[in-house]
Amino acid sequence: MSATSTSRLLARRARLLGPNVSTFYDEPVHLVKGKGVWVWDADGNRYLDCYNNVPHVGHCHPRVVDAICQQASTLNTHTRYLHEGILDYVERLAATFDAPLATAIMTCTGSEANDIALRMAEAVTGKRGVIATDHTYHGNTTAVAQLSRTNVPGTGDGSHVRHVPAPDSYRPLGGVAGPAHARAFAAKVEEAIDDLETSGPGFSAIILCPAFLNEGFPQLEPGWLDPVVKVVRKAGGVFIADEVQPGFGRNGYRFWGHQRIGVQPDIVTLGKPMGNGHPVAGVVADADIMAAFRKSFRYFNTFGGNPVSCAAAMAVLDVMEDEGLQDNARVVGEHARAGLSKLAEKHDCIGDVRGYGLFFGAELVTDRETRSPATSYATKVANEMRRRGILLNKLGLHYNTLKIRPPMPFSKENADYMLGTLDGVLNDLGPARD
Length: 434
Fold this sequence. Notes:
It is a single chain. By secondary structure, this protein is of the alpha/beta class. It is about 40% helix and about 15% strand. The strands form 4 sheets. The protein has a 7-stranded mixed beta sheet, sandwiched between helices. A 4-stranded mixed beta sheet has the order 1-2-3-14. Strands 11-12-13 form a 3-stranded antiparallel beta sheet. Strand 11 and strand 12 form a beta hairpin. Helix 2 runs antiparallel to helix 10 (about 305-320) and helix 12 crosses helix 13 (about 410-430). The longest helix is centred in the last third of the chain and has 22 residues, at about 325-345. The protein starts with a helix and ends in a 5-residue tail after the last helix.
């Protein structure tokens, strides 16, 4: 699109949607079509999607599209009528978890799911104090928004929330990675629990993404969260695992992020990838927690668990299994990280390479010795990649980590194309100087 057309579209957005509606990149992309791992803009330019986990099994996957169309042409209503679709889906979904996680509530968004999870924790503990990291995001309802330090709400009472330093394997708490880093993180959680218990709200739950993706997906091996879970259990609290990003096989090794890192949550929340773009999400818990919630709160969601949403979600599981997408995530992810490590031998701006499965990236620095974040440089890299037909972005504690999180059919050939383009961008931009 011309600069004039783009500016007109942005002006129209501001007029109709209100101010401060964010877009990606210095030059926003006007998308009109998607297929597999590719998207096209209004001018017919093709982009390799290395960012979006919403179209989990690929943009416009025909089996998901067909499932939606077939069910929409038959029946769509809410869960106060009996229908097998929601039961068949929850039964199949629950089979991917370890006991005793076996019951679910269907919602439309991850924000709703996390809101319910907080109420579940309050129902079983009688307390409302919550702990989250200081660089996380769990949604945008009034209650859940209080958990965020990256999108701080302008209203609401967050006095019951405590934030702990996000883990960073590149600059670990205490200066040492591995078990010492895990113990240091657990100690911060314990301090937050003590503060909640003495200040009034009491300790109800800790909510974490098991891969700490918004925090920059630090390299944390199985067992790393064990000290934290021990502290939480000792205090009588609930562990909520937010699987919106690391779930549904994306880590490549296990179906869920908490399984890969080796912990058992009390409640699991699900979102974006669940319906491949169709708005469906959920909360999974054991029967006792579910019963406590149902007794304490009258909850009904008109659209949560409707037959069309369940059909879309079931089709995603079908495609995941039939196309071997979890194994693909592991194999291609290892290949891509190896490629990034080779680029690090050539480009000094790459300070650290990390990730699991099909979420991976590189932290960019101005100096490897001081590990000084190259935040502005990372922005330049993301924008230049977009100009060359690759969609990715940045995140992390210093917003200097390239975030690469493509749809699950992403191939080695796609990875090589992305790596080659990144090599060219880093060559052309030269050394990182913020």
